[in-house]
Amino acid sequence: MSGNPRIILLSGPIGSGKSRLAAGLVGRHGARLLRTRDLIRAARPGVPEDRRALQRAGAALDRTDGGEWVKTALARLLDQMSGEPDPPTLVVVDAVRIEGQVAAVRSAFGTLVHHIHLTAGESALADRYASREAAGDEGVAFEAARRQRTEKGVEKLAALADVVIETDRSNEDAVLTRATALLGLYPRSVTPLVDVLVGGQYGSEGKGNIVGHIAPEYDLLVRVGGPNAGHKVFGDPVQVYYHLPSGSRRAPHAKLLLGAGAVLRIPKLLKELGEHGIEASRLSIDPQAMIIEDEDIAREGELAKGISSTQQGVGSASANKIMGRAGMNIRLARDVPELRPYLREAQEVLEDAYLRGYRVMLEGTQGTTLSMHHGPYPFVTSRDTTASGCLADAGISPMRVRRVIMVCRTYPIRVGGPSGPMEGELSYEELAARSGIPIDELRTTETTTTTKRQRRIAEFDWVQLRRSALLNGPTDIALTFADYLGIGNRGAYRVDQLNQTTLRFIEEMERVSGVPVSMVSTNFGWRNVIDRRTW
After folding, report:
1. Is pLDDT at 382 greater than 80 in this prediction?
2. Where does this protein hold substrate (predicted)?
3. Among residues 231, 243, 253, 373, which one is catalytic?
């Protein structure tokens, strides 16, 4: 066949872990598995499936040509695979048994062949053999299996292998990691594949609308934070996301991930999964994500009086995750039976995405000026909302970042009540007079998604813009609510259709931040994002 796949030869005694490594290579890297019995039956059709019959047939073939038959049988099976619509790029042979088999395959396929030998102490091998449930093992004791001539000589193959792994000194994950490294499947350099999207103000910047616009470009959508912030994606119907990435329906092909720093309210999450039709095969939840209990919500009642908390229990649950190290009775995602089908470690999901070259979008929640560490304390949220904070919560290295998109609105808002300072606060009457938008429409729009409170609204804060740019290091700014600079902007689908006030505003944003305004949202229809990106 032309375009041969890479071939992994496994060798080692019975119970050394070959089957587990083979399964890991199939599951993690999509390898195609060829067992010894597959090769024997390709060479001698009709051989029974039991171990003794297969061993006798294999030994007879080895006596005939010293192992050359493996090369011929493998070539025949690879030729069959080459005619498939999606032929494999990686094939695992489990296992080779004598030196002649290894030599024959290497002579035929050269540098495409990688040989891994697994071994372990005799007691570990015996224990594993006793606990395994391999077909054909019935009635064959470990000592008898080990006395078989080919089995007795299998450790000689260690001298020929590219790597020898003692599986009683490395756990299953470590064995797979070492095999992956041998195959060169871990890239030697870090390819930036992650785009981070954060709010540049106090939240409610219209992040969901921007995510909805760009989500179809990505293969994996990641979200952190908790249900104290609802993201809207406008369409028919309007979609609201509290836990899930906002592009979940706009990018139906993309996988979804909630990182270890996420905080989850189980009834709300399960309802959201049902509303958006999200299956367990598509969504991964890190086992260490924190759970919000009823007590957490009750505990936050007093916060609403002092800082206009959304009272969703996110801060209390986050505090419990810290204090729980001292023995408090807390629950993580791994402790919730309903979430078991979704549990996958974020690092495994992300590494798989990197290996496959997937585009990844990390969606932050709330806004930079609400950061626990960098906002006007105590009028802040319970986490760091900057790009770096979101990366930490998701478990993504800064080296993986390609772009940082900071979303800012023309008139920033804060939730109603004692939510903290805001420069140049405006009345809705004044905003209606400036924009031409009816005041009733403004009041309806400026109602919070989660708590249904009326928002406070203010003049654009240029100092805030500069500070948020310093904190996030954005490569791009997405400007939203351009219609607040004139209702006529709602009919703009190109930059030259925006009014002069908006064009001057964009020019000054770029001058103050040092960052291009590459997207402009003029309304909340699916076509109302003017896209000026050059990437």
Report:
1. yes
2. 449-455
3. 231
CA distances from 67 to 52, 62, 98, 468 (A): 18, 5, 7, 67
| pLDDT value at residue 305 | 54
On the 0-12 / 13-18 / 19+ scale of CB atoms within 10 A, 143 is exposed
Packing angle, helices 18-29 and 172-182, rounded to 10: 60
**Under 8 Å between Cβ of 241 and 211:** no
Look at 33 and 184; give whichever has higher pLDDT: 33
Cα(367)–Cα(66) distance, rounded to whole angstroms? 69
Q: Quick one: tokens of 526?
A: 């699916």
The residues pairing with 408 across neighbouring beta strands, listed in sequence order, are: 479
CB 474 within 8 A of CB 442: no
Q: Which two tokens stand for residue 29?
A: 């890297």
- 231 in active site: yes
Strands annotated E in 371-488: 401-409, 413-415, 425-426, 455-458, 476-480
- Report the alpha-carbon distance of residue 407 to residue 498 in Å, rounded: 19
Residue type, 311: Q
Binding site listing for IMP: 228-231, 310, 366, 381, 453
By CB atoms closer than 10 A (0-12, 13-18, 19+), residue 149 is exposed
What is Dmax (Cα atoms) for the chain?
94
Rounded-to-integer distance, Cα 357 and Cα 505, Å = 37
Asked whether the whole model's pTM tops 0.85, one would answer no
At residue 172, the pLDDT reads 93
Q: Which residues are annotated as a binding site for substrate?
A: 449-455
At residue 106, what are phi and psi to the nearest 5 degrees? -65, -40
Cα Rg of the chain (Å, integer)? 30
Q: Which residues make up each annotated binding site for Mg(2+)?
A: 230
Higher pLDDT, 479 or 79: 479
> Does 137 score more than 60 pLDDT?
no
What integer pLDDT is reported at residue 304 of this predicted model? 55
The interaxial angle of helices 387-394 and 462-472, nearest 10 deg, is 40
* Per-residue pLDDT, 139: 59
| Single-letter amino acid, residue 26 | V
Annotated binding site for GTP: 230-232, 455, 481-483
Contact of 482 with 502, CB cutoff 8 Å: yes
User: Per-residue pLDDT for 374 more than 80?
Assistant: yes
Binding-site members are 228-232, 310, 366, 381, 449-455, 481-483
Mean of the pLDDT values across residues 126-153?
Answer: 73
Helix (H, G, I), strand (E, B) or coil at 239: strand
Tell me which residue has tokens 């938008």. Answer: 437
Strand partners, 33: 92
The segment with the largest mean pLDDT, out of 1-10, 203-212, 469-478, is 469-478
Evaluate if residue 131 carries a pLDDT over 90. Answer: no
Other beta carbons within 10 Å of 186:
12
Residue identified by tokens 């808002």 is 413
**Mean pLDDT of the residues in the chain:** 89
Distance between CA 413 and CA 423 in Å, rounded? 10
Q: Which two tokens stand for residue 483?
A: 């219609």
Mean of pLDDT values over 123-149: 74
**Helix or strand (DSSP H, E) at 6:** strand 6-11
